[in-house]
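Contributing new complexes? Match this layout with 5-O-phosphono-beta-D-ribofuranosylamine.
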Amino acid sequence: MISGRGSNMAALIQAVKTGRLDVEIVGVLSNKKEAKGLEIAQNAGLKTAHFDINHFDSKDAYEDAVVKQLQAWDTQWIALAGYMRIIGTPLLTAFRDRIVNIHPSLLPDFKGLNAQEQALKSGVKIAGCTVHLVDESLDGGPILKQASVPVLPDDTEATLSARILIEEHRIYTETLQEIVDNKH
Ligand code: GRF
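Output block (do not edit by hand):
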């Protein structure tokens, strides 16, 4: 599930293509029609769907529709890849302990939005990313894997984010394969 650029999603698609990730990506779902990642997914021959929460009476109604679509694709696991909405009860109930997320900080530090900017402002010398299971808490579910990168003296949000993103793509693929191999 995505909301934007979809570089983590693209990395997963590439990993499946090259045999490093033994899963079938049954579909890519976005809450934004204009998400760049949808185009990438379509070009890769994947099924896509988008649901605009504003077209529903409530967040639950929106998520009910999302769950229905995911079940129609026979989804077993959900990989959130830059999906910018907090996961609510319908999704958590339908996919309990089967939703993973990638977050651009060493959790539990710097939860929520703009994690890289939070890291820079705090003055930490080491930043990174985390793959974790999703539960009711914001970015607080069990941690599955982390990778760290140095924060360099002249870093901007863009340079630090780019350094972290390389590690995101690597550990997201690795963690999902470890899930397939029952290592989590
Ligand atoms: C990534 O930094 C991810 O950690 C965060 O949102 C960003 C999504 O980037 N959750 P992309 O859409 O995967 O390129």
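Reviewers usually confirm one structural detail per submission. For this one: The mean pLDDT is 97.
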